[in-house]
Design brief:
The complex is a heterodimer of chains A (282) and B (280). Chain A is built from 11 helices and 10 strands. Chain A is an alpha/beta fold. In chain A, helix 3 (105-116) packs across helix 4. Chain B is mainly alpha-helical. Chain B is elongated. The chains are: A alpha/beta (282), B mainly alpha (280).
Chain lengths: 282, 280
């Protein structure tokens, strides 16, 4: 029984340009699913559609997003927001803009607990403190009183991760959580997310364009191309025998440091043409 | 270097705050501070020069105007009108303009279309002419001046705050707040407002300076309150007529006006440096 089921989701711009085409996707409870694809494939769009934060210009035209047995799109907006707020969380891409610059860290972490879920202020503060310790922030009591600009990018991403886990959500959507960080910090952050996910048993939809990351963190993955899911597989099978030609080409395009002389392998034109042709027929 | 800049900014803040504080105290204690009755005419002692010029009367420190009224006392009482216009008109303009701008910039959609077109139309009117027209219709008086300033200047706030609310609304932290279950209105107040507040403060202080000037302009063209009442603009206007015989009637209120407007704008700049967490 999957926790999140997306069925035939279509998202388009107001002028009719399709952004997502018949996307179907499942995330089981406690599962880590990777969502990969090149820039502009619509990876983030899926996350935003689930969370109800699509940009003004985009609209869901058809399909279902079933969260824990409830079809989100059938709910009125206010109820939908409450449902999502109580069960889902987002780890955003850019830690520099994801924290409100004019508010202290503490209230930003505890807002949801106090205002939406009705915790007492004291309980929420304790919770924030514990979580900051869990993401290995030294002197968490001081950090809670600081402003975002006083902290480094890595620290801020740790805080965002801690905030995401604060309300014990059932599903976390991580939208390229390491892209804005430098490589040395990326590895720590990945470890941290994986560790927290395992301890809390949260389902995780991990949006990334880095297949290397997927192989380390995820159990299954969906490959997205031009707003369509072209392959759905568990990680082991995918890396051994990718089924779809686009997936194979994407996998082959990953640079390897074992043979530097090999150069880079872009996705061949023929593959893209084949995917396009298939699209037009199906 | 940054340290020197910080110090200069601090000095600017303190100097302007000091002048404005002095002005507020002057306005409150005007009856105690003013050496003479500002309305009392004494045609026998008209156009007396300030105290350091030969022929001055030590009773009139900054001299008298052509009707023999004490310039210093009139400046002191004039601060009451100037400050009440600055505070009331500035604050009302700020509240109305900033709210409209905030809502338009954050909600977008049809609210934004209406507010933006309204701003465009509004700004096509020449402001001074507009205010003169307004006062001609509703009649002169303190309330009319305040009303005129509010009606004309709300666009100043609305435009800037709308743009800023729009920029802040696109930030990830707003999306995060929405995901966390906060409603639109709550997000606007809790997340967006604190981030546009430094700009609102700067605009507010600028607006207070502008309000003082507008009041002076309207007094200058005799559309303010009755000519008897001491307003800085009215004094400048009267002084202009006798500039060759008695320059002090023009110069002293002008200096006061200049320092006040300058202080308002510098106070805003200083406060912005101090309160903006990113700049700090």
């Amino acid at each position: 029984m999957s926790y999140l089921t997306i069925r035939n989701l279509c998202v388009g711009l107001k002028d009719g340009t399709p952004l997502l085409r018949n996307v179907s996707l499942e995330v089981a409870a406690g599962e880590v699913r990777g969502l990969v694809g090149e820039s502009g494939a619509g990876k983030s769009m899926i996350g935003k559609a689930i969370l109800g934060i699509l940009p003004k210009a985009a609209k869901i035209t058809s399909g279902q997003i079933v969260l824990d047995g409830t079809d989100l799109l059938a709910l009125p907006p206010a109820q939908r927001r409450v449902k999502v707020g109580a069960t889902c969380a987002l780890i955003p891409q850019d830690p520099l803009t994801a924290l409100n610059p004019s508010r202290r860290i503490g209230p930003q972490m505890t807002d949801r607990l106090v205002d939406i879920l009705g915790w007492t202020r004291a309980a929420a503060d304790t919770r924030a403190l514990t979580l900051l310790q869990e993401v290995q922030i030294t002197d968490p009591a001081r950090v809670l009183r600081q402003y975002p600009h006083e902290l480094s990018g890595g620290m801020r991403q740790r805080i965002l991760i801690a905030s995401a886990f604060a309300a014990e959500p059932k599903l976390i959507i991580a939208d390229e959580p390491t892209t804005a960080l430098d490589v040395t910090v990326q590895k720590q952050i990945l470890k941290l997310i994986a560790g927290l996910q395992a301890r809390h048993g949260t389902a995780l939809l991990f949006i990334t364009h880095d297949l290397g990351v997927v192989s380390k963190v995820c159990q299954s993955l969906s490959v997205l191309y031009s707003g369509k899911v072209v392959e759905d597989a568990d990680v082991k099978t995918f890396f051994r025998t990718p089924k779809h030609p686009y997936s194979a080409a994407l996998l082959a395009a990953t640079p390897r440091y074992t043979d530097p002389s090999a150069g880079l392998h872009p996705v061949p034109e023929a593959v893209i043409a084949a995917v396009r042709a298939e699209e037009e027929h199906g | 270097m940054a340290d020197a800049g910080q110090k200069r900014a601090g000095l600017r803040l303190w100097l302007s705050a000091l002048w404005l504080l002095l002005l507020v105290l002057t306005a409150i204690f005007a009856p105690v501070l003013a050496p003479k009755n500002p309305l009392e005419q004494d045609l026998m002692s008209g156009r007396l020069p300030p105290f350091w010029v030969a022929g001055a009367d030590p009773g009139f420190l900054l001299g008298t105007d052509s009707l023999g009224r004490d310039v210093l006392s009139r400046i002191i009482f004039g601060s009451r009108i100037a400050l009440s216009v600055a505070l009331i008109a500035g604050a009302s303009t700020c509240v109305i303009g900033a709210s409209l701008g905030l809502v338009a910039g954050f909600y977008r959609g049809w609210v934004d279309i209406i507010v933006s077109r309204l701003i465009d139309i509004w700004m096509a009117f020449p402001p001074v002419l507009f205010s003169i027209l307004l006062i001609a219709v509703i009649g002169p008086g303190l309330v009319s001046i305040i009303l005129a300033i509010v009606v004309i200047d709300w666009t100043r706030f609305a435009r800037v705050i709308r743009a800023e609310a729009m920029a802040q609304g696109a930030m990830d932290y707003v999306a995060s707040a929405r995901v966390a279950g906060r409603g639109r209105f709550g997000t606007m107040l809790r997340e967006i407002l604190p981030n546009v507040l430094p700009i609102i403060v700067v605009l507010l202080t600028l607006e207070m300076g502008i309000a003082v000037i507008v009041e002076a302009i309207l007094s200058f063209v005799n559309l303010s309150i009755s000519t008897d009442d001491p307003t800085w603009g009215g004094m400048i206007s009267e002084g202009r007529q006798s500039i060759h015989q008695a320059w002090w009637v023009l110069v002293f209120p002008l200096i006061t006006l200049f320092l006040t407007v300058l202080s308002f704008s510098q106070l805003g700049e200083g406060l912005k440096d101090r309160f903006d967490p990113v700049l700090r």
